Amino acid sequence: MTQTTTGLLTVREVAQSLRVDDTTVRRWIKNGALEAIALPHRNTRQAYRVRSNTLNELLTTTTINA
Predict the structure, then answer these.
(1) How far apart are CA 10 and CA 23, in angstroms?
(2) What order do you get walking across the sheet with 8-10 strand by strand?
(3) Do 40 and 25 touch, CB atoms closer than 8 A?
(4) Beta bridge partners of 10
(5) Fewest CB atoms within 10 A around its CB: which of 3, 11, 32, 50?
(6) The pLDDT value given to residue 44
(7) All structural domains of the chain
(8) What residues contact residue 20 under an 8 Å CB cut-off, 6+ apart?
(9) Region 14-31: what's the mean pLDDT?
């Protein structure tokens, strides 16, 4: 799955875009600071996808308020 075909980003892709660790993105999702879609999972870690629009809104809001 890639951003260009689905508009959804993995936790790792969001982390790379923001230059933070994957754990930080997961913490933001769990705390409600970043909206994400929870996917069914088999492993111990919950899988999430973040809409690219959500990330763009976060970046725009952060830039204006900074």
Answers:
(1) 12
(2) 8-10, 47-51, 37-39
(3) no
(4) 49
(5) 32
(6) 80
(7) 3-65 (1.10.1660)
(8) none
(9) 95
Q: What is the pTM of this model?
A: 0.78
The secondary structure element, H or E, covering residue 43 is none
Token pair in block for residue 5 = 């075909």
pLDDT at residue 3 in the model? 47
Q: How many Cβ atoms sit within 10 Å of the Cβ of residue 17?
A: 17
For tokens 């993995």, name the residue.
10
Q: How far apart are CA 11 and CA 22, in angstroms?
A: 6
Among residues 17, 15, 18, 13, the alpha carbon closest in space to that of 3 is found at: 13
Q: Are 37 and 26 in contact (CB under 8 A)?
A: no
* For residue 53, pLDDT beyond 70: yes
- The answer to whether 49 and 8 have CB atoms below 8 angstroms apart is yes
